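Table S4 entry, Pentatricopeptide repeat-containing protein At1g11290.
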Amino acid sequence: MRSHARLLKLGLDAHPVAATRLLQSYAARPSTDSLHSARRLFDQVPSKDALLWTAMLAAYAHSGHPTDALRLLSQMHRLHRFRGGPAPNHYTYASAARAAGSAADPHMAAALHTQVIKSGFESNVVVGTSVLDMYSKCGDITSAREVFDEMTVRNVVTWNSMIAGYTTEDMGGSALDLFHEMKCVKFEEPDEFTITSVLTACAATGDLASGRQIHSYSVKGGFREDLAILNSLANMYFRCGEVEWAERAMEERESDLLSKLVMIKGYAFNGRYLELMRGISGSNFVEIVLRDPSLSVSVLAACANLSLVRTGRQVHSLIVTLGCYQNCCHMHFDGVAIGSALIDMYCRFSSVGDARNVFESLVEKGTAHWNAFIAGCLKNHLLEEACQLFNKMPERNVISWTAMITGHVQHGLPLEGLRLLANMYGENCSTTQGNQFTFVAALNACGCLAALDLGKQIHGQVLRVLAAPEVDNSIFVETALLCMYSKSGNLNYARKIFDMMRKRNVVAWSSMITSFAVHGMGLEALEVFEEMLKLNFEPNEVTFVAVLNACSHCGLVEKGLDYFKLMKEKYGIVPRGDHYTCMIDMLGRAGKLAEAWSYAEKINDAETSYNKETAFNIGRYGDIWDALLGSCSLHSNVEIGRKVACKILEGKPKASDAYVAISNMYADAKMWDDVYKFRERWWCNDVVKRVPGLSHIQITAAS
């Protein structure tokens, strides 16, 4: 440095005051070269005072060399004790505490704290605050609180350090309690750093009520224009799911790059991908990615969810150009996430070949990359390729096994899924344990097979897992248990599971209603639905499918019509094909075939309005046409039966069931000429024979 060279020329490099100032400048711009220069300068000073020792110690601390800093403190102690050198002062201990905190070594921290107490500086507010912060950074929040409680004098920095320590350790409740305690202390008004910390605590805990109170407090306290607080407010509202409030907090403000990052991350957290892309389009995307490479993962996810194929490819090219893989590693971000996000994006685009190219181009393939590609193959119905990848995996984790179990169940191979579950526990009994999602997949497989005994075994394992206090997704497993018992024919157990659920959502209510409905217990299903409404749960379109199905099985036509009207008028749900299917089945069973036919004609319009890109597919609703045809046969309605049969044969010219049903209807009506014509058409169209139905049950093996 020029100042160092000037001191050398003037012969002042050995002067303690000048050397101290120079060491402080080195500490302000830490680097390996400047640290070596600082140490040489320190060693050249023959008469070192406490300020010079402290400046050198601070230089080590700022440069990321905590061990050297504390070694220097020990050397200073020895010189003071045996040679009468300068004693460490409160600034020395404060710098040493910052060094020990950066090392995150609890033993080192405890040793330094002991030295502070022996030296009599524990009552100094600067030293006490530094020791408190040191313990917090070491993860010893209990010792930090003990130091805080023992301090007779505190300042706002002390309170902020303790609150920040709680926030860092995900103890948001304790941070908020301390904040409220701070507000009651005279002469210790919270500042912008306090507000920022407690807002971060609210964001981490999802405490919207406290967040709103702190928002109000910040406005009354004159922090309305503080950009750091505004960013923290927006982040808090985003984390609590209040996107509109987050936008309101940032509107009409001069936003910098950090503010844009907060907004983009918030949109990503809430799955608001359209707003995310709008935020990106009005900004310098290169600058954003270089500042925070992790955002490229959010942008790729947005492209995947919005089917922005061209934009996704452009982002991929930019990532390669900017070298985000290296940047991510340099900035302590998991670079594996970008590779996984690229694979997932291309698989969502149904571009499995591009996903494979990304996968093959990876120099080091982590387990996350393998999992992403396997999941992508399963989404694209490439079960065989997914199996090949799974067999080649060098190391599997619970995500790998769960993906394969789920994939087999979704592809109609529940037995293979259960075999995979057995293999997972057989090969990895000591290393891999199932999680909630594994159990959901396994229970779904048991439900498909009506394997009640095996389902009970998995239930026992679920009880052990759900007993863990950290498990907070139990509602999904409990709903899967409910469905498994229902599909296995044990409605009593299904109802017990439902009654014991700690929390219920609309999916759980809908599952219970569906369970009763499909077992012909329509009245019980409707009782559950009425209970749901009384508890102010809002039903969705799936709930109403179950309710209408229950009305159909009970023959409650008027009740079904009322619920159909309620669905449209009160809850604003636009009827889809599934709803019309239930109405047709209900009216057909009751012999109201003309009304049933009118609803049947509405299915096409309902599906087209729901998805304009997908034309009505007769195959999707083939079962209801068959059911309506059966109702026509039961009630001897040849006129509507002919129209239904023609509708079926338009989509499936070789549907043998339709030929048989209409032929029998003509025969019952003594319309022999029509019988002959239909049977001749049957043979001319080379209609295949009817496929016999199959069913299976679990039988306890004889011992």
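The radius of gyration is 35 Å.
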